[in-house]
Amino acid sequence: MSRMRTALPNTAVNRVSAALILPAAIVMGAVVIYPILTTIGLSLTDAPLISLSPPSFAGLSNYAEWLSNPDFWRSLWITLIYTFGVTIGSYAIGLFTALLLNLDFPGRAILRGLVLLPWAIPEVAAVMTWNWMLDYQFGIVNSLLGSQVGWVTDSAMALWTVTIVTIWKQFPLATVVLLAGLQAIPRELYEAANVDGASRLQQFVHVTLPGLKPVNSVLVMMLILYTFKRISIIYLLTGGGPAKATEILPVITYLEAFKYFRLGSASAVGILALGFTLVITLVYSRVFLREEA
After folding, report:
1. What is the DSSP letter of 95?
2. Phi first, then psi: what are they for 116, rounded to 5°?
3. Structural domain boundaries, residue 137
4. pLDDT of 195-219, one tens digit each?
5. Counting Cβ atoms within 10 Å, is residue 146 exposed (0-12), middle (13-18) or buried (19+)?
6. Domains of the chain: total
């Protein structure tokens, strides 16, 4: 009888928990799982973007074609350079800005608002402004430098240009997250370090950085994933050029689908990109998160 009394409430709690989780699970399935399964299905066909007839089954031929294509591996390498360049740059500038905004000085509230401007400006407007500033003949950057540099037209410069523009757009996110992490570090730790005669650098190394570890684990993963799938800045600035110098995997996916109308091929590239994203996530989780645990 006592078992029944304890089992019934637990059963009721489980049912209530399942009922509360069910709507979120349905939404997750609709917006995440179903599109992924649909994309996998399309990647196994020769489906065009627009067709009145059903697509033919192609098996793994789309994957085999891309995995044997040197352009795919070149694009993957460019994607990795772009992703880690933006991640490192966004984190470094975000940390510097967060440390500055964590200080108490007049006008700090205004500066905090200004730091968020790059993140708040619509991406299309921001990229068009950068396009004008970096124009080969009439851009303000070349006018200030007194020379004509092909920031987005020179294949040697284009990747670094889009990396810098993306860092400018993305570092406010790192600033906000790191500033929240800095303010969560107990002041008593800094006071104890002062008593022990620790310098500012020693406090940063032994108090600030360890205190930011929980924030870093989430932030770095966010920056990597967000940059890996980002397409708008590169597509609007360079379109993947010049000479495919900035053609990251999301750009290939877009061009295959909406320029060449090969939806099956584009789906295969998208699934391969998703696979590489999962590999990066697993490696990061096993190496860095395990160290922090």
Report:
1. H
2. -80, -10
3. 62-292
4. 888 888 898 888 898 889 889 888 9
5. exposed
6. 1
